[in-house]
Amino acid sequence: MEYIIATTARTGSFLLCDLLMRNGYGLPDEHFHPFNGPFALALATGEHTEQHLASIRAKSSKQGIFSTKINSRWLEPMRQNMLAHVLNSAEMLHTLFPTARYLFLTRNDKLRQAVSYYRVLYSQEWARTSSALYSSHTPPLDAVKIHELILMVHEWTQAWRDCFAQAKIVPLQITYESLCDSPEATLQAIAQFVGKPLPQQPILTSQFLRQSDEANEELVRDYLASSLIKNRQVGLS
What we know:
The protein has 237 residues and is of the alpha/beta class. It has eleven helices and four strands, in the order E-H-H-H-E-H-H-E-H-H-E-H-H-H-H. It has a four-stranded parallel β-sheet, sandwiched between helices.
């Protein structure tokens, strides 16, 4: 069995991957991150995407399950590194993962997704565990930058929607909000979708902590109160 977590930045993907791993749904990880980890090494050493996939399938499959996480921004580096000639991301996915099912993890609140990304660009704290030291540094408000990030997260999400439409893939839709508010119901929906029942007592706690806090909310309030918004120079779409 194979499933792919199709996502974008700041949607709770570390949390979802950890919960799935703890409940016996493979070892989902960032196997295709083009700037960090084993795929970055593959790109640097000339190992094609297909070869890299064969290697991680052998190493990262558990109990007959292979799972991975793919950010929409990674699709093009993956495609360009293919040995086979594929015209677009949709064709690449069919070539690499012909039987996979897709979990489409998004975030409803694009403003808070953008603020989370804005903050992490400064802190470089992409995930927080219970044992990690917490950096309280909060960047000053840059309303223009935050608005640019709102547009970017919309584009990243739409890139997956376009790819699914072209590939005729129907994913399971999951949101960050439902994952945080109802983790058991989210896991139950995934279990039904991939065809593997949850354990009788599913694990609903993760080593990863929710990173949003009052500093995020302060940035949200300041952004909404900024002259950029008050003067209606930009929208909030």
